[in-house]
Structure prediction request, 527 residues.
Amino acid sequence: MEPSPPLRNPPVTHVKKKSFLKRHGVDRYEISKKLSRRENTVLYLFGTLIFYIALAMIIPLIASYIYHESHRPWIISISICIILSIPLLLRFKAAEHTRSTETLFVITTSWVLITLVGSVPFILSGMSGIDAIFETMSGFTTTGSTIMGGGTVAPIEEWSKSLLLWRSMTQWLGGAGIIMIFVTILPMLGATGRSLVTLELAGTDTQNITQRMQEESRKFHYIYISLTLLMFILLIIAGVGVYDSINLAFTSLSTGGFTPYSDSIAHFNSSVVQWIVIIFMFLGGTNFFLQFRALKKGGLKVFTKNSEFRAYVLIVILASALLFIFLSPELLGMSVFEQVTASVFHIVSCMTTTGYTTVNLAGVGSIVAMILMVVMIIGASSGSTSGSIKVVRFVILQKFISATLYRTIHPKAVVPIKINEKTIEEKTVTSLMALLVCYFGTALVCIFLLMLLGVDTMGAIDATIASVSNAGVGLGSVSSSFGGLPDLAKLVLTFAMWAGRLEFISVFVILSPVFWREFLRFRKRYS
Prediction:
């Protein structure tokens, strides 16, 4: 057998050259994997919040140019926010599936985060760290307690206009935030969120709230923004300047209560301004879910058929009449109309936990102080920007007591508790009892701590109720300012404002060991 002839053109084998990265032992896929955004909802949302705070601070920065004030606090604050937020937004993204523990953690700790970031302009303007944190927490939680004008802190009028505008903006942003939490975020939390939103909107049709809120949650904010603009226009027409109108619009609808003046709304010396403020405080304390339904379906029947709204109006009328009787001796020299205005104003201010005043409450009688404190504890409507316990829960409590008394006489009777023709589930009543225990338990502990720190008894009670209710109305020794309190007392009240704004349950949940075991177990598994 003859050998095969050699190939004339043998095939050329091309040796693929290694890339520069491979020759040096670098895997570009590994680099790409490390540089890609990781799923971490907590850090991504934190970055988003801080970035939004940076955007919001542009407004007081512009105001500092308009009023020829120092730009340094705003440029530094915005820079800090950008330095903190941009790396988080570039490095992380929201996960496809977020556990309830993560969302609860974000909801509760975000208020602390934005308070720390939002306090930077106050610190750069010369305020101490503790005072700045107290003032900022009071703003974002729409409490309205202030340390300005007390102790070594300068009066309100001596601070820059841009800083006072930011102070008012914190309340407007906080009011929008609490609406977003209850009508947008909580329904997405599964069973945990639904139980919280059911407690907040008891007696409301919440069966399909998740889908509806995802589709139409923006409309809640449209209502909030539209009412703010409407109030601004009315105040301009009433003769209030642009700067003051912006501040009042920000802090009235949010039921916050900050003003650029030490004498609050009394500074304007106008019954027209007071009634404009009364109307928008009242609207801020009205259930936004109810307002949404009224605008969607049309007509006022939505309000008149709602048992909580009826109770809300009734309490305002009766408490105003009662306050008129006992406050009249304090208002000598005023006309009857001015006395009626002052009575209605303070009841609506306290009940909606706004905290505006037109009369010095330091020297009012004990009966007047008690009336104001009672409506402060009751609070306004659920699903609103107001704080405290809320009217619907007292309606449920009254029906629960009546049903319990009836079952005592008729042990075999089945007495359902109904609100707006909807049966309230037993777990809602249980959650209500837990909230009441947390509210009064927190109040008692805070009062005890304040008294240990040297605060007088009435001052401790007034300051604590104002803080846990997010009302900000100081009576007695704290009627003008909380600035004279010891620093540790301010920290205690800062915690009380935070817990009160989040209605205690979610705060105490993340402080429990069970939560952290579950939270860290999940984080370790997917880290």
